Amino acid sequence: MISPAAAFASTTFRAYVVIVGTVLLGSGVVLGILTRGFHRQLASIWRTYCGWLLIVPVVLAIVFAGRVAMIAGVALLSICAFREFARATGLYHDWWITNAVYLGILAVAASSLVTDPWLQVPGWYGLFMALPVYVVSLILIVPIVRNRAKGQLQNSALAILGFIYLGWMFSHVGFLANSPHAYGYLLFLLLAVEANDVAAFVSGKLFGRKRLREEISPNKTWGGALGAVAFSLVLPWLLWFSFPQFGPLQLVLTGLIVGVGGQLGDLTISMIKRDVGLKDMGSLIPGHGGLLDRIDSLIFAGPLFFHMVRWFYDVY
Amino acid sequence: MHAWVYERAGDLGHSADERARRIPREPAIATWCLRSVSQTLMRLVLRIGHRFEVVGREHLPPDGSFIMIGNHSSHLDAVCLLAALPLWRVHSAFPVAAADYFFATPLRSMLSMVAMNALPLDRDHHGSDGIVACRKILGTPNNILIVFPEGTRSRSGALGRFRSGVARLAAGTSTPVVPCYLSGAFEAWPKGRAVPRPLQVRLYIGRPRRFEHVSPDDRAALAAASAQLRDDVAALGPTLPRSSAGVATQAAGRRSRLPNTPSVLHR
Q1: B26-79 tens-digit pLDDT
Q2: Which terminus of chain B is less hemmed in, N or C, by CB atoms within 10 Å?
Q3: In this prediction, what percent of chain A has a pLDDT beyond 90?
Q4: Domain B16-256, architecture per CATH
Q5: Which residues in chain A are contacts of B26 at CB distance < 8 A?
Q6: In this structure, are residues B186 and B75 in contact, taking their beta carbons and an 8 Å threshold?
Q7: Of the listed ranges A135-149, A231-245, B218-232, B241-255, the one predicted with least confidence
């Protein structure tokens, strides 16, 4: 079980602190050389980089603080992400249905925190998997209790998408904290998904010609997408120490989930933004747009990774 | 099938300060919770520290939008008027607050918005923008506007001249104006004192008045309406001449601590 004491003892955790620190420092130096030495205009990239200097220590501190902090942190992110979604789509006008989703997210967090009453392991997986049934029922009951029909299909559909995707699916990342291999899984997932985003950006700049999905996101290119998949397929081999039990099949699957799934998550949120008519979901982190713009890939890739692990090894 | 309409939040991409100043405010659950807690705490302080009492609560309209006006002599005033309302109505009650003080810095803006639901009013531009914001508030059903028509806290505790803003808002509409008189607030926390004294504060609420037949363009009628409102507020207070501030106010303060109910209340 992860805790501050376990983090100190864990070679995986310490290795990731060193790796992430080196990457941040290295990219800072590279950016500095490009700006000073080659006089490139990189102001927006610097802002994004400074955003990372803020995010990385916070995320590492949460993983360091242990299981409860990790699950609570994911729940808080879920709530903030859903809030952005609700404000962007207008769902937040419906106070009752919005609160039903918040309640659902808290219930998902609680089911990840409690001990399984039958198996006596941390995290009640059975309840965690059953919760969508109860929460979707709760969301559908709201208009019935309030005796409303007009616009309720839209509101309940948005609330169900919000809960299932931003609440429940994303909460799989928090549930990973219950695993004995939590450090490896969590830190790899967080690092790989974000590195995949950066790889897509960089390889898009270098090889980007043909538009990937111009109706959804005009700035993404096939060059960027394929470059990121290639990078993500290599990364699990480099960080194999995070999950020594994995064989080549699992490493390839992990690479595909992060590489392809991560970009699908990005496109999913882009699709929502495009339909609603927004550029960014919010302005929470300087240089990163809203919270949803930052965690979009993780929401898609996290649960797929979780179930890949569970398929082969069980989470525990 | 009709296309879905996304009525997204009007303050997307705004800074926290802009959000605090913006009217109408977008609903936010965290703000709602924090305001409920802070209002409950303020009510507790009033009850315990100032033995706060409300006389004439039955005069408050149970629903619909209305304006509450009162004498202004301390920072307790807006808190007291809010405390006369049921807790759930606090989120749709807007005390009009001077933007140059209560919204001077982003932190103050947030505090004024979260704790008091204050509505920023620019005192320097003679309030035409402010009147628009107030009309917006009153145009929404079940909103309450809290205004101190003297425009600033009284230095002596005496009731000053009323500005015409409230009369302009109410003229030609069916919006009721509820007069209130706070007694003891000046003695408890006069202008210039850092912390309040634990003296009793009592709020008298009078019958609402409407100005449906007053023309909003008739300056003389508006002045008369303002004077009428001032009389309504003064009539709720202790029946002493309040023109010669000093002595009379001290006496009034002393008297108001006695359990007196003004005779005009139930006329």
Answers
A1: 888 889 999 999 999 999 999 999 999 999 999 999 989 999 999 999 999 999
A2: N
A3: 83
A4: 3-Layer(aba) Sandwich (3.40)
A5: 87, 92
A6: no
A7: B241-255
| Selected residue with higher pLDDT from B193 and B126 | B193
Calpha distance B192→B200 (Å, rounded)? 19
Residue type, B208: P
Q: How far does B80 lie from chain A, in Å, by closest CA?
A: 28
The Cα-based distances of A100 to A132, A136, A167, B210 in angstroms read 12, 9, 12, 41
Q: pLDDT tens-digit profile of A24-80?
A: 999 999 999 988 888 777 888 888 899 999 999 999 999 999 999 999 999 999 999
CB contacts < 8 A, A to B, total 38
ipTM reported for the complex, 2 dp = 0.76
- Whether A90 and B5 lie within 8 Å, measured CB to CB: yes
Verify whether the Cβ–Cβ distance A276 to B4 is below 8 Å: no
User: How many angstroms away from the CA of A278 is the closest CA of chain B?
Assistant: 9
Q: Does pLDDT of B259 surpass 70?
A: no
CB atoms A93 and B4 under 8 Å: no
pLDDT band at residue A284, thresholds of 50, 70 and 90? low
The residue-averaged pLDDT of A91-97 equals 93
Which of B26, B29, B31, B32 is the best residue to mutate to test the A interface, defined by the most A CB atoms within 10 Å of its own CB?
A: B29
Domain ranges of chain B: 16-256
Contact (CB<8Å) B27/A90: no
Q: Do B8 and A89 touch (CB under 8 A)?
A: yes
A211: β partners: A221
Position A208 scores a pLDDT of 87
Q: CA geometry: angle at B61 spanning B55 and B63, to 5°?
A: 140
Reported as a single tens digit per residue, the pLDDT across A254-276 is 999 999 999 999 999 999 999 98
Q: Using a pLDDT cut of 70, give the percent of chain A over it.
A: 97
Stretch B2-13: mean pLDDT: 84
Does the CB of A153 have a partner CB in chain B at under 8 Å? Answer: no
